[in-house]
Structure formats: structure tokens, C-alpha cells
Amino acid sequence: MSMSLGIEDVTAPACCAPLSGPPLDADEAAELAKVFKSLADPVRLRLLNMIAAAEGGEACVCDLTGAFDLTAPTISHHLKVLRQAGLIEGERRGTWVYYRAIPAALTRLSGLFTLPAPAPA
Q: Strand pairing partners for 21?
């Protein structure tokens, strides 16, 4: 079962400006660079995909580690990088941590690549 995220108008002023819009200031560019750097690793990109697509909208770390030929501490490091980038959040339940994607962060990223609609002919 796939998770359905709500649709948000990413062109509204409350969201970030698209890259095709006004120039980014230095602070916003630095913040976005950290997010993109966190996604530039194939393992982290796969982890984010697995978490966002998990049934019920969250995934236990115990379910994530088996998909990789990596140690649990390495997976934990990758998850920490995604958390620090603001893309996922985790909740400890007993021994395990359950992760879920932060929809607003993913929507913000998708809004960056929105191009202006062409003027009607």
C-alpha cells in the first residue's frame, strides 16, 4: 500500500520560491545545499524512498537495515544525515526507532523545480 501525500500549491507565497524565480539569498542557498548534499548519496536516497513509500507512512529501522549490505551503525549514520537535513523524523518505541518523511520538506523540494506556466498563445 503506498502512502498518499496531500497536494499543496507550491506556487503560493508561503512556500519557497522556485529556482526559476527571484535569486536565492546566501542563507537559503546554503540551507538547500545541505539538503541536496544529503540526497546525493544513493543509500540515503533509497532510505528516503523506502520511508516515504512505507505502509502507514513510517518505517522501522529494523525493516530498513535488511535492504542494504551495510552495518547497522552505517545505516544509523545515513538516517541521522537525513534527519539533520529535515527530510525525516524519528520516534523511539522501545528498542526500535520508527521514521517518517516530513511532507512539507519534500513538497518544498519539489516546489523548487516548478517552472512558470507558459503564457497562453
A: none
| 103/76 Cα distance (integer angstroms) | 21
* Torsion sign (Cα): 67, 72, 74, 79: positive
Q: Backbone phi, then psi, for 59, in 5-degree steps?
A: -135, 140
Give pTM, 2 decimals: 0.76
Band the pLDDT of 111: cuts 50, 70, 90: confident
What's the grid cell of residue 45? 536516497
pLDDT digits (tens, 9 = 90+) for 33-91: 999 999 999 999 999 999 999 999 999 999 999 999 999 999 999 999 999 999 999 99
Would you call 107 exposed, middle or buried from its count of C-beta atoms within 10 A (0-12, 13-18, 19+)? middle
Q: Which long-range contacts (CB under 8 A, 24 or more apart) does 94-98 make?
A: 96/60, 96/61, 96/62, 97/60, 97/61, 98/58, 98/59, 98/60, 98/61
Copy the grid coordinates of residue 72.
547497522
Distances (CA, A) of 18 to 1, 3, 49, 50, 119: 31, 25, 23, 26, 17
